[in-house]
Amino acid sequence: MAETAAEQTVERSFMAENDVAMAQMMQAMAVRPSGDIDRDFVAMMTAHHQGAIDMATALLRHGGNERLRRLAQEIVITQQAEISAMRLAIGAPLAPVPASGPASTASSAR
C-alpha cells in the first residue's frame, strides 16, 4: 500500500525529531569522567533516559497506534521518575519537569 503525501510528511517529521533526539542523547552521554563514578553514571543515564522521553514524545505527536501511544506515555512518566530518583540518590537538585508532559502532549497530538 502506497503512502499518501500527508503520511510521508508525518513520517519525515517523526524521523527528523527522532534523529535530533538520538543525536542529542549520544552527545550528552559522552560524559568526561569527573572522578565521581556515581555522578558520571547519573549524567550518562539521564541523557539516555531523556533520549527515550524525546523519542516517546515524537511518537505521541505523530503516531496513530493507541497501544503504542499509551506505552509512550508510560515511557515518559517512568523515565522522568527514574531521572528524579537518580538525581536524589546523588544529592543533586531535581530538574524541572517540562510543562508539556505526557498528558498534554497526548491530547495535543495529531
TrEMBL record:
InterPro entries: DUF305_CopM-like, Ferritin-like. This is DUF305 domain-containing protein. It comes from Belnapia arida. Residues 12-87 form the DUF305 domain. Gene3D superfamilies: 1.20.1260.10. Pfam families: DUF305.
